[in-house]
Amino acid sequence: MSDEKKFFKLRRFNLIMGFLHLIQGIVMIVFSNDTTYPIFTNFLSFNMESFALEPVPELLYELRFGPAVAVFLLLSAIAHFYLSTIGYDRYVKNLKKGMNPVRFYEYALSSSLMIVLIGLLVGLWDLGVLILMFGINASMNLFGIMMEYHNQYTEKTNWAGFIYGSFAGIIPWIVIFIQFYGSIASSDAKPPEFVYAIIPTIFVFFNIFAVNMVLQYKKVGKWADYLFGERVYIILSLAAKTVLAWQIFVGTLAPV
After folding, report:
1. Model pTM?
2. Domains along the chain?
3. pLDDT tens-place string over residues 7-27
4. d(Cα 34, Cα 63) in Å, to the nearest integer?
């Protein structure tokens, strides 16, 4: 198959995936209930009785979960529509170089929002913690861009971007696992049952993205063709977002 035909099929594939994300995002907005999760600040205040500085939790915002879930689906839809329309020529140009920065920019937003929502589900409700989780996860994806950019100019694969990105990416999960384990071990207020399924499944999905990158750079089997790995990224993105969205919907957002 000629490269031009492969690019055309990938263009069509992106367009289809854009609609699949868009439809799910609309469903989340239209049919989700009004379930919210709190976001708190914990600024210090001086306690006159104990003469000590103490954090004072204050409710900052009640985040509606349905629209929040829709956002990470709609971000993917926007990226796919961009790549299959006005961004197509640049998309092809970058693919020929063995890179797709738009993919990682979109992941930096969508997957970081996914991490934040999982954090909220296990009780990580502090604004500062959520911002840090979002930023660190976004950094993991930006390292992905650096990995692809630098290796255009190397004869031997430089794994620095991958290693640093993996280090950044595991940190939010460590926080989530600590919070989740602490919740089920030390109190009666355990996370909802559907959260027990979300954490391992999405954790596995996140790590398969890394495996896909390794297979691309190792040129294992079909991954010797960069476009095959690109298609796998697209499928993984849809699968991870779909699984998370519908697990949350069934667990807490479905109308009563």
Report:
1. 0.94
2. 3-253 (1.20.1070.10)
3. 999 999 999 999 999 999 999
4. 10
